[in-house]
Write a structure and sequence with these properties.
It is built from five helices and five strands, in the order βααβαβαββα. It has 139 residues and is α/β, with parallel strands linked by helices. It has a five-stranded parallel sheet with strand order 2-1-3-4-5, with helices on both faces. Strand 3, helix 4 and strand 4 form a beta-alpha-beta unit. Helix 3 packs parallel to helix 4.
């Protein structure tokens, strides 16, 4: 059985409450239960933190033993050289995910420190972006 982990960054603990016009009205906890049922043949773990160092620590702790990482570093995508370096340093493939289309938002969101070292990038499909990332690891 493959083991994947979804790692979410700052403010994603507020999904379902925060800017529903951008992020939808479903909480991530509700969504996680749905995808765990849908992809029952895969072990899906979850971690969320608003703290950059905790995200780096988690990437390092799972980055040599898991089959895949789905990373939505949120605002840290555009600011954290440290998270980008952590993705580069680990062996486990990382798919960068964003709920919104970051290129349709403010210009500072058009740059990612993660993308150059990611297996792929999926953005703009709402929570379905996570499902597309899961599918990428099923082959």
């Amino acid at each position: 059985m493959k083991t994947l982990i979804i790692i979410n960054g700052p403010n994603l603990n507020l999904l379902g409450k925060r800017e529903p016009n951008i992020y939808g009205s479903l909480s991530f906890t509700e969504f996680l239960q749905e995808i765990k049922q849908k992809y029952s043949e895969i072990k899906i773990e979850y971690f969320q933190s608003n703290i950059e160092g905790e995200l780096i620590d988690k990437l390092q702790s799972v980055g040599f033993s898991y089959d895949g990482i789905i990373l939505n570093a949120a605002a840290y995508t555009h600011t954290s050289v440290g998270i980008g370096d952590a993705v580069k340093a680990i062996k486990t493939p990382v798919v960068e995910v964003h709920i919104s289309n970051t290129f349709s938002r403010e210009e500072f969101r058009h740059h990612s420190y993660i993308s150059p070292n990611a297996k792929g990038v999926i953005l703009g499909f709402g929570l379905q972006s996570y499902e597309l990332a899961i599918e990428s690891f099923m082959k």
